[in-house]
Amino acid sequence: MTRRGAPFLSFSRSAALTRAATAVLRTTAPGGRSRWERTNYAGRTVDLYAGPGAALAAAVGAGRGRPGAALAVAAAGLCGAYDDVAGARDPRRGFRAHLGALRDGEVTSGAVKLFGISAAALAAGAVLRERPLDRVLAGVVIAGAAHFVNLVDVRPGRAAGVVLVLGAPGLLRRGEAGELTAAALGAAAAVLPGDLGERAMIGDTGAHALGAALGAAVAVGSGRAGLALHAAGLVAAAVCGDGVSRLARAEVRLSHSCE
């Protein structure tokens, strides 16, 4: 039986945990504050504490009902965190660049992220669904959603905003799918003000984790036709992703040069 008010409770818990975890990280700054600071598109210094805070909250929210979903969200966040640290000075973006480097014998942080998130998503799909085809489709949806949200993260607040917009209809779902969606939206809502205000950014850590949480909600709450439709759309977005990413980043550079 569906618990009344469960999505609201999941949203509230996730938002509160995101804010609390972010505050703790901002106070302690493990490894030194310089590790947590970046320069954004406008040349302003922002911090990365909100990303792990959102990833933790989304993973905890997912784990309340579906440990398999929590695995995917946590792995996406960890892979994103590795890229935030190890790939901070790497200008290469997009699947083609990282796969090209891999072909030349170089394992980039982007390649680690790509294969790590994909493997975790497929493992989660195998746990969340019963039939072989559904398991594969679920894995594609989770990995695709994680990469899609990161793809749009080229301006302040864009990734969190996309999560809120795309996830809003999912709040109408009953059961675990609605609660999973609410956990992702609660974390996104908590980080959005600081992100829009250019005081913080969620980085790859937060973007991938929030995307994986949305994908897990779809994987849990959709039939095979829904899974196939979402998977096809996300694969198409990935195929076009390199071009979209280059255009978006060119837009950022142009805007910065005109300021």
Strand order of the largest sheet: 1-2
- Count of helical segments? 10
Q: What is the oligomeric state here?
A: single chain
The backbone outline, from C-alpha atoms, is globular
Proportion of residues in extended strands: under 5%
Task: Spell the H/E element sequence.
Answer: HEEHHHHHHHHH
**Mean pLDDT over the residues:** 86
State the distance separating the first and last CA atoms.
55 Å
Structural class: mainly alpha
Backbone CA Rg: 17 Å
Short description:
This protein is mainly α and 259 residues long.
Q: Would you write up a description of this structure?
A:
The chain is mostly helical and 259 residues long. It contains ten helices and two strands. The protein has a two-stranded antiparallel sheet. A hairpin with a 5-residue loop joins strand 1 (37-39) and strand 2. Helix 3 (67-86) runs antiparallel to helix 9 (203-221) and helix 6 (132-151) runs parallel beside helix 10. The longest helix has 35 residues, at 224-258. The chain is globular, with a radius of gyration of 17 Å. The termini are far apart. The model is unreliable at 250-259 (pLDDT under 50).
Give a quick set of tags describing it:
259 residues; mainly alpha; two-stranded antiparallel ribbon; 74% helix; 2% strand; globular; disordered C terminus
Chart the SSEs and their pairings.
Layout: H1 6-28, E1 37-39, E2 45-47, H2 50-63, H3 67-86, H4 95-103, H5 109-128, H6 132-151, H7 158-167, H8 176-196, H9 203-221, H10 224-258
